[in-house]
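Hi V.,

You were right to ask for the full record rather than a summary. Here it is.
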Amino acid sequence: MERKSLRTRLTLGVLSAVAFSLLAMTWVVSRDLRINMEAAISAQQYSTVSLIAAEIDRSVRERLDLLHELSRTITRDDEGGDGIKLHLLERQGPLLRLFNLGVVVTDARGIAVASIPEGRIQVGTDYGTFAFTEEVVQHGRSVVTEPLHGKSTGLIVIAMAVPITAADGTILGTMVGVINLEQPNFLDEISTAKYGLTGDFVLTAPVSRITIASSDRRRTLQPGPEPGINPIYDRYIEGFEGSGIAVSSRGVEELTSSSRIPTTGWLMQSVLPTSEAFAPIHALQHRIALSSVVIMLVVGGLAWLWVRGQLRPLKAAAARLGDMGQGILPRQALPVRHNDEIGQLTSAFNDLLGRIEQQEAQAIEIVSNRRLRKILQNVPGMVFQYRRQPGGQDAFLFASEGAMAIYGVPADAVMADALLIRDLMLEDDKERLFGSMACSAEQMIRWQVDYRIRREDGRIHWLRVDALPERDPEGVVTWFGVVTDITTTKQMEAELRIAATTFQSHEGLFITDTQGVILRVNRAFSEITGYTEQEVIGRTPSILRSGRHDSSFYAQMWQQLAQAGVWSGEIWNKRKSGEVYPEWVTISAVKDADGTISHYVAAFRDITERKETEERIYRLAYFDALTNLPNRRLLGDRIQHAIVSSQRSHECCALFFLDIDHFKLLNDTKGHDVGDRLLADIAMRLTAALRNEDTVARLGGDEFVVMLERLSTDPRLAAASAALVAEKLRAVIAEPYDLDGYRHLTTSSIGVTIFQGEGQQVDALLKQADVALYEAKAAGRNTARFFDPAMQHQINERLALEAALREAIEQRRLALWYQPQVDAGGTTLGAEALLRWIDKDGRIIPTDRFIPLAEETGLIHPIGRFVLHAACQQLAAWASDPRLSEIVLAINISARQFAEPDFVTELQAMLAEHHVPRGRLKLELTESVVLERVDEAVQRMQQLRALGLLFALDDFGTGYSSLSYLKRLPVDQVKIDKAFVRDVCEDAGDAAIARTIVTLGHVLGISIIAEGVETEAQLDFLQACGCDAYQGYLFGKPMPVSQFERFAAAAAVATA
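Predicted structure:
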């Protein structure tokens, strides 16, 4: 940066002092002038306001006095309107001059009884609602109101009211003078007056803050600023009288004064912008500032001229010194022209110059010696002068201080005894060393040889001798040279050999300079990338970029390389063929001796196979193998992510549970391969029907889950969108499928739950969707249902029922009740064992409540085993009773129990354990149990028949009722369902079905029993059809075993 001259700095210093003094004086004068002028203008302004306030107060008092004077003429005798009106008419002239809207007289209730001029104010108008009327009547004092709306005129007026007082002091009423502010009145002088050029007068009502009158007519009858906007205005309202400065609500700084009018409490204010009030001060400040600038310019010019004259000798001396420094003039003494400070400075310089010349001569010699010493000290190794006498004696004529670094022996010791060095040499190298020395002396050629020494610390160092021989006339050879330590060089050579071997590894290797230009690559590089060495030398690794990584990735990589010197990571690169592949790269920075990066070495290997393996493992862990959809584990992660995202964005999400209707039937009839093909097709359809950000997952079997994200923030709109999607999915699934030439149609049931993030749990959401799916299935399938809290309540009840059922099974609160089965004569042929659940309170839980639940939860298996065990035990007990030994006991077998692989073996063990007589236990199966897998069912039934069991086909006529199946099944009895028996006497169709079943059974040699027989008419009809046995309330309800035994015993006696 260029330095300012001394002359400039001195001038600026003087000028700065003057400027500071002028600025300080200007500030003090301006401040005092403003304070004084503000006080003077404020006093003048307040005086003006006070005069106007006094004038207004006088005008108000004049009007009140006239009203008081007139009110005293009114007595009780004048309470009628005519008498009062007469008094008003007598003074009508003065009254209408002072009250431009007129005068009204009211009674003590505030009702107008008289007014002038006649017709302007309606007689009979109620003024009692005005606060001022109440104040005059109650307190007996005059009141001047703030602006208000007239009762009968609707005009904005000011009312002046005085009490009308009887001789005894009783208030007879009020006399009110009314001034219309919208017509000429005594306040108009304020509206026409101006304070200064831009100032205003303002008359304000303090309570309402309404402007009564103002020079600025736009403000008339407008509210003033709200509290807190204008501090000085708020002080005036609170009662302060005086002056002040504040910024108005319009953003203008104003000088204001305020005086309160005693009679009315109004505020008379004058407002003057400070821009006008203090205009003279601003003009004076401008003039002072201009004068100060002129003074500073004059003073600065004079100071510049004076300083230049004083510094002329010094400038001349400086110019001559500069020429000496640049070699233009020879170094010489300067002339001394004045005996002042500058002259003294010049003389001192001349003395200094003489001493410098003397010292320079001495320093030259010292520097020369030091230079030679430093050269020797900084030469790497030991500089030496070595002589070998003809007799073979060795001697170092000179050895530099490097001897200590090379041999670990001081230079003085080396020069005193050369054998110290010979003793350090390895024996293997001595012959070669001295041989080369002899050759150099004989041929007078350069002596150059590498050899090793072992230093006192035991470490071996490689040394190199490089010297030139010189022979004197006497034939003595002297070598002048240097010994250097080349241990590091030898190590580097070894490392380079190792590196060269390493460079041929199976990993791709390449070396670049600091600019990233490739200098060398190995064979594995070419094998992996497809580029030859000639194609990449001189280029940068960017030719391998695949485009998968952005610039921030490479910036971060280089940043880590700069900080740590090494970077490792996965990069997707591109081969010469264009194939993109993953590789694991390690880049190392190579530094020189100074620690500066000189090269980069990159080693990489193709990890395509590893990535493919990882991808396979990942897909096995998170995706369904059949459909390639996310599995339960990945679905859980995505739902959790959706919950968090929804909590931030407040957008709703929807979770669908989707189940393929009757999928098991397809699997059983067409095989699992066809079923898998259907599931794969459905997965593709669901994926194609949804957005990319939506999730389709398969939990197993025919259960799919769909999750929609980023729906509306309104749950109702989100539910509407989800409903549309659900219908779309049902329609997509319902389209025909070509399953290896087999055209298949199917439907789906969908359960939907809507969630919005906060407080949600993954398992709870899945359960809610599952509940909704259960409702969809219960509604007949092929439909969609949404979860609501009522469903949850039902589920909670269901869970409680399940827990209670498990407890009942464990605590043996299940029992068998028995309903008699009789023939036409009333003889008890057998009984149907019906399951009863008796809770802790002794109440019977209906089977239709817990049997479906047991089927779904798998509890039907322990329940079924209990029923079989109890039935076998009971039959064993009856076998010893002649009255009951012939009873055949029928029990219902569920489809799941019948399909158990070890059902036959388990039942055989029970029969053997209890010694159940053959032909006494009958298993009732429904059509659905045996018709799902007819061949398997027939085989199992035949195995059980061989054990002495009987079979009855329950609820016949309500299912498939295929005659071909019935012919194949080894059943002993068919039971007519109670649905047909109930209306057999009224419904011709039911009668025909019952008759057909009886006939069919007899043709096939199968016994027929009707259940649900409750009336004699039903019994008569069935007997006429030839039915073999009956069961129903007509003969007996289900009953405990003891009661049934009494019933059976009594029936046996009756029919004996």
